[in-house]
């Protein structure tokens, strides 16, 4: 039941014996749930956000802002930079692109005409009753179909100026008066480039089609009047009843199940979902078809944290109405972890939340390609100017316009088509090198067109869960105030627990056979009596074992139904079969720890729980009240009654900031919390309070009254609970570690030293995100953290931004809701401030918000961004970034498949960027400029030749020589530049500061381009004039003379450019030289002046004479020696940073 790219997740589910939910469901019998999407941002803000309320509150974001007294504070001076221009200048400087794009978007919108999303009424098991036609529940990730493939690929190729230019030049050769040389010299390279591109796109398209077909053909169980049938995922309709189950699981919660939502929000913890009460009470599954009932659901929305709907049963008197909330929903792309679910399908296909939160992949173009595209435009301008000069020197005589176009074609080698071929082959070579690197095993290059982007990154946006952390909580520390226990002293706690319960069981006469607290008498005698360490440990462990929302689940390893039923009947509490499920991995870690020291949670339902002591006795407790954890209260509590003694105890645990004012006075809590936080541990303070029967009855009456109130219900309930939270006895402080991925800290430090700014975007809670930011050293120990207060309107955002502006060199932590408000009113100012922070943490981010942050950084900073994640909720962010990296992790392969680069561990990103990113960028920059130099030098020679022959538009070299010059004579040495490296990999990792230079783009800029232009003009002039001066008496041999000197010069220039020699480079140099000498001997008819038919052949005896050899050598020496001298002097007096290290 897939609705987006979920093949890898499905595979993970079956590995773990979990079943994945497909379309968005609404829970019924086994359970029943529904799904939806959020209000649009324009509907979420109240009238208090009106700008008129803020006329006297200018936001002081810059010095100009202090003196700005305009009433519209949304348009501060810096924010007005991007105001739309108009006029002829705007049109010529790129406005035409905007207009064309707008027209295309308009046509596309008219063609698609997206249907408006509406609320719906869905009848149980009756898809035919649906009033509207809903989208098919099928995945389609293909970019093209059979009709649009060829036009689409051609458009993607020819939207670049480079390819469009070659197409126009090649087409011009069909006009006889413009023909220069042979057609194959123009069409063969262009056809090769297009053929390679089409084959690559076709292979990718077939793979996408096969993946989609596999997902759409997966079978699911559908409940019908005739019983259970199997249907394909693509055949599921709105209104169908779908059965999803996890077999051999015993969960003691009636009418509820657990699901995992890691592919939506990145959280791998379990979430409890509750069935609709009306259908849960039906005696049999078939009765679902005997009742007349429907679900009214809100329209499909983006928000994965809210849902509103109603369930109505019509065939009863009176009708039964039940409200539906997010607790009654199963989302597409979630995993059912326990129980059997029967759900009605509410949303399918494009209307499910997972698809609504997934952005479509864009065709990514590297920054280096854009820079080369700009340089080719400059070359084209130079080519046109040179052609006009030639025609002007002719005096515009005769058909000058035709001559102008002939000159343009003649000088077309200024922009060589081999540039595209060489760069594409180079990118493939870089990808192969990355995948073959033994230091980063398992790395896959999925987008081979942007390896150079790895060397230009300024912002790295990373997920938390599964990317920086393993999401495996380990209990590390227990502090009792006077004594602290770590991992190496846990056996002492275990011995204390065994001893304390052994004392209790050896005293049956006190009536406490089921394990009352051994220090009960001392506890009631007064707070002044000092308890023993053993009794304090006992109370602390007991509190941790009781105060939670964890449920034990038993998994049978037997395959026969009879065995599983008998096991369930006997309540087999075997430790081997038990797993724990909870909405927080912290709580599971605490309960696992109590199990390790002897007190085990063996059973729990909605009203009771049972613990097993080290001696095997079962302690039963009734759950009287539960106060769940919220981000506002930062604590959770539970009131239990012990079955054997009837004692009522109120246990509470929470963050130190929330608990400090609740517990009795102490002098150690704050200090120890700080110590644990510095170690990267997540701290929880545990406290308790004993209640008498009268106290509890009084509380229960007030609590129930508060829950029934209509006005301010939340405030009244909180006030009643707070009346209990006074002078609680502090039991202990716990420290839990969220294990980081291997080498996360040194990797983050490496990236920071390389000048990369790291932003952490997570769907997790604020406290958790802050803790991981500290423990991973994303935020350094001495760095201040500014937690952005929750804001809901413009005024609050305004005040909080001003407070944030006054902070310097501090990390920012902000929630998704506050971020949305800030971006609505103060987008430019917020991004400007956030970009100045050394680190930014955004918590409670939805998948679409993650992608929005990426796009904001791209728009406001114009820097290259990289996004890295491992879950389905990271796909939008990965696809929006200039470079997307996916990690194959516990959350499946969805992010890995959607990314441009796939790695197996976070630490591999260091080598990927520092080594491969550097090499790819440096090599492509050198390769691109050298290929352009190769074209410019021969065009300069052509210009000199034409100027001597009265500015005639006659080619200097025959078509075969021109093709050979760009291929067999120089291709291998030039392409061997992809093996060059300026710094050894070890040095690049040891000195990450070298990476900062790459982001400035100095390896390929207009400055370096102009240097190569001057070199080309100098060498082309020397070669042509030298050939004419030294060989005046043998002028018929000018082609052989100049071409030989040209080939030798190119081979020497490659040697001059290389920084680190590879044996293949030497082979390429000598192979090309050998090929050229062989062609001189066997293809001498191509070296004459003019056409072969003129009878101008090369005299073999001439090229073997000493005058020919020394004169060619002299010309080559004059063209290259000055450049070698300049390079030597520059290295000696102004060496680059990397040469200082390598020396």
Search tags:
1143 residues, alpha+beta, 9-stranded mixed β-sheet, 40 helices, elongated, membrane, ATP-binding
Give a short summary of the structure:
This protein has 1143 residues and is of the alpha+beta class.
Structural account:
The chain has 40 helices and 35 strands. The chain is an alpha+beta fold and 1143 residues long. The strands form six sheets. The protein has a nine-stranded mixed beta sheet, with helices on both faces. Residues 1-20, 28-86, 247-253, 509-528, 558-571 and 1089-1097 have low confidence and may be disordered. Its EC number is 7.6.2.1. Residues 504-531, 557-581 are annotated as: Disordered. Residues 897-1135 form the P-type ATPase C-terminal domain.
Strand order of the largest sheet: 16-35-34-33-17-29-32-31-30
The oligomeric status of these chains comes to: single chain
State Rg. Answer: 37 Å
How many DSSP-defined strands? 35
Q: How can the largest sheet be summarized?
A: 9 strands, mixed
Which segments are poorly predicted (pLDDT under 50) over 5 or more consecutive residues? 1-20, 28-86, 247-253, 509-528, 558-571, 1089-1097
Structural class: alpha+beta
Report how far apart the termini are.
61 Å
Indicate the mean pLDDT: 80
Q: Provide the helix percentage.
A: 40-55%
Tally of alpha and pi helices: 40
Question: Could you say which overall geometry the principal axes of the C-alpha atoms support?
Answer: elongated
Strand content: 15-25%
Family: Belongs to the cation transport ATPase (P-type) (TC 3.A.3) family. Type IV subfamily.
Domain P-type ATPase N-terminal: 130-187
Organism: Amphiprion ocellaris (Clown anemonefish)
Region (Disordered): 504-531, 557-581
